Amino acid sequence: MQKAWKRIELGLVAVGLCLALLLTAAIPVCEAGPDEEEVVKLGLFAVFTGPIATTVIPANYAMLDCVRYLNEHGGINGIKVDMLWEDTKAWVPESIRAYKRFKYAGVVGVHCYSSTPIETLLPQFQRDEIPNLSLIPLTRGMLSKPPWVFGTTPGFGPEAVTMMKWMKDNWIEERPLKFGVLMYDHSSAWDALEGIKEYAPKLGIEFVGYEIIGAPPVPPIDVSVQWLRLAGKNPDWVYVYSCGSFLVVPMKDAGRLEIQKRGIKLCCNYIGGDEYLLKVVGERDSEGWFILSPVRYPTEREEFGGVAPALYESAKKWRGYEPEEVCSHYLLGWIGTSVLIEGVRLAIEKVGFENLNGRAVRDGLASIKDFETGVFPRVSISDEKPFWTPRVRLCQVRKLEIWPYTDWLEPVYTYT
User: How many other β-carbons are positioned within 10 Å of the β-carbon of residue 26?
Assistant: First the structure.
């Protein structure tokens, strides 16, 4: 009989603990009691493993380091920030599960890095009123009114068309410029291709076609056939839209096949190419490539302004990086989190911490004006222009470093 009562008592304790846990989970993030610390929770769809991790890991490190630095220096006017993260590999199923966890943890804003998960989750962002600040350009599938996703630039299509316009404006031969695309099978790549195909004839450019080099999550091991088919059409420029391990093989195969020696200029997007990836590819195969980008690079450290001391201090303290070892994607991640935190700060300023929620943070992001980042041009965001900057430029790889090649280009808006 004694044993039976003991089992019943243990069962009641277990039930009590479960109820306590459920009640705790129901407490909103921004309701702090008199003896509780005020904390804002944000979510990070991290990519520490998977085929694009080679380029995303430095950005993820920087996002976490930025929050750590902020908290060590007083938070947002005394309010601490907690950056929750889940390794999603940039895959949709993992991203959906991560979002559910973030939502029920009480986040008021998230970072997601890949267009396919963002497009999938947009209806939930809207329904739950949780904004996403991304480190990538917009796609059509990320757009809503009002915006709940904020990108780096007006979009993959607008970026590509802006680049093509510069190429056409600087074309001196009598015949039309010929342009081709080598891309992986991804929603962002298809967005870029859509803009290119639509605007090439409007710009007087001959689009010679595109080649697909595989689809996530399995990167290609050889793209020689695709390169040779495309090179056989004699393009003057080839835009290679790929990312992480999906970009390494195309770059190395282009070097092995001596594509540039045929007079073909090669360009990739900043999301795919950073200094770490260039080291994997090697100097021989990366030399001379162009990168389409809205950011400044480590080669321009003297232009970073006030952000530099905090950024480099954190990179040294928590990652062991010397200033010359800090790559462009670390800069991108740091600035991305700085922009999201600025949106939170403006929201708290307007509604107070006790009323802070995702809607207020969305409104805060959409009201950022002339925010100094040092790495991007000054950031201004609005409902009409839900992106950090409209401008991009071409940079060029020289001896494994990335250097500016053009001035900032005036944007061609194609869908925003």
Answer: 9
